[in-house]
Amino acid sequence: MNSDNIIKAILKINPNAKVGVEGTDINTCIFNWDSETTPISKADIQAQFPEVEFDMAMEDLRAKRNKLLADTDYLALSDNTMSAEMTTYRQALRDITNGLTTVADVEAVVFPTKPA
């Protein structure tokens, strides 16, 4: 985990938290809590790590998916007739995140093959 991920975990618990983190290891890092933010235990922060990792994996997956969709957007313009294969491909890309609940699910995703 890096300090950004530690902060993401904190914000999952308290979206309004104001804190600085020095270090990247949850066991040795130093927290600089704002006087208006109730400190959160390291154990509670650490318990959020799997969710933060899943969120990051989904962000990466969506970025790749969005790029593949953008690469074929020109085919969806009103002056083009999109083939059934391309329509199916684009729908498969849009549906690719459905039902994913773990990092392992995300890592197992196989992107559809773009039709010629």
Task: Explain what the structure shows.
The chain is mainly alpha-helical. It folds into two domains: 3-47, no CATH class; 49-107. Helices cover 50% and strands 7% of the residues. The chain is built from five helices and two strands, in the order αββαααα. The protein has helices at residues 3-13, 42-47, 49-72, 84-95, 103-107, and strands at 19-22, 30-33. It has a two-stranded antiparallel ribbon. A hairpin with a 7-residue loop joins β1 (19-22) and β2. α1 (3-13) packs across α3 (49-72). It is elongated. The mean pLDDT is 95.
Any chance you could write out the topology, listing elements then pairs?
Blueprint: H1 3-13, E1 19-22, E2 30-33, H2 42-47, H3 49-72, H4 84-95, H5 103-107
Helix pairs in contact: 1-3
